[in-house]
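Batch manifest, entry 17 of 40.
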Amino acid sequence: MSTVRTKKKKKMRTGDKVMLTIAIIMIVVAVLALAVIALMNSSIFQDSQVGEGGFNNSYATEESIRDKQVNFLLCGVDKDKGRGTNLTDVIMVVNYDISAKKVNILQIPRDTVVDEDKYPTGGTHKINAIYNQSIKKYGNKAGINGLVTAINENFKLPIDHYVTVTMEDFRDIVDALGGLEITSDYAFTSVDGYKIKKGTQLMDGQTAEAFVRERKHVPGGDATRQKNQRVFLSALMDRLLEATAADLAKMVPTLVGMVGTDMTPNTILEFAKMAQGLEKSNIIFHSLPGKYGSYDGYSVFSMNAEKTAELLNQYFRPHSDPVAVSELGIKQVFDTTTVEDDAQPMQ
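Output type: structure tokens
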């Protein structure tokens, strides 16, 4: 299936653009658990990263239950200067149980260990490096298809569609909305010099970016960064729900063209209709159980295979049979577990 960007629709009327924008917002904010999370560490999606033959949908949900659930892969690709090159620093798998109108979101830490013998990571052992590897050299083992393969083999989760967005658009969206009221549990100064106060404050795009990126200057490191991402998403969803038609119109230039996806506008509209009636309390974030530590000279996150299997079976297979831990492709490098799944609903 080929990559589709909404900006390629050259003769779309303004009214249609607004409807498409609303649909994208509904998909991004609700069904995709606010795929705008990918805005936190992302850059423009490159068509060349899809791989040979377009998006590989051979890992899609089995046909017998496609009317009951759908899984989305959300990626943010960080290409900002000084931050790395083409690394998927935000990775989420979103399971939408259509029949129950429930969304479960698996937040996959950027430093999650994968088997270096199976997946090209440039020697880092990290899942976020797969996307960045050469398509010319590795074919469908790299790029978005390589990441989909790794997720399917490690978690035995189907992937039906993917979505990516840009860091510049992240800042533009927040600014177009007049900023966001965000509550921080801590006062800190980000590595880029942005000062975040403890408590509720109005953040512009640059400050919100610093809030959701920071992991070095906050207690808890990556775990706190994941929590801050959730706080940001909740604030964004609240703001979008109260947005006026004028607010949405301001976002059209940004949103039309910001989404890199395999989905057509019609597909997005269909999912938007399915999202109607979805409540924030039924959008649940999940942390992978495991431990952060040092492995082979790199700072990594190692999944606990047994606890991960339990998590996936409980929340991410609503219409399919449980999968035994022995069937997962997880490479566990630490014996202890310091991060547990907190199963937090969107507040």
